[in-house]
Amino acid sequence: MGEVVTVGLDLAKLIFQAHGADAAGRVVFRNTLRRAKVLEFFGRLSPCVVATEACAGAHHWGREIAKLWKPDTAGAVARNEALRTSRRLGRTIWRRWSSYHRRSRAETKMHCVKLLGQRLASRDFDRQVAEFQVRVAVLNGFTALGMPVTEVAG
Length: 154
Hints:
Strand content: 15-25%
Largest sheet: 4 strands, mixed
Radius of gyration: 23 Å
Order of helices and strands: EEEHEHHHHH
Oligomer: single chain
Strand order of the largest sheet: 3-2-1-4
Number of strands: 4
């Protein structure tokens, strides 16, 4: 049996189901937990990825379980530093300082490009360029349709 790297947690009102897996995906444990024993159980585990369903209770349990483990992973350190900086500077200034909005817009546009198809159909490079330019033109058209038109009243 390997070390637990991922735990799936099925949330409920009283009885929770926990399923642990190692790096290869093999089952390490399957446990039934009472609500009062969940934090005690995770306190005995080493830090790992905990996957839950998307619900309001998931945020609560995610915060409570995260409090049990030290934030020594690279991702946790980076996240905590970004949060501290955001609190210190204020969210608006932090976004401008870190170019967050610009990055966010670029990531959103790349997601839209991928929605038009993951692969290019053409094999020739010049035709691939043309195919991509058509996709960009379609996206620019959709973006223009969504832009508000401001007119002076009066």
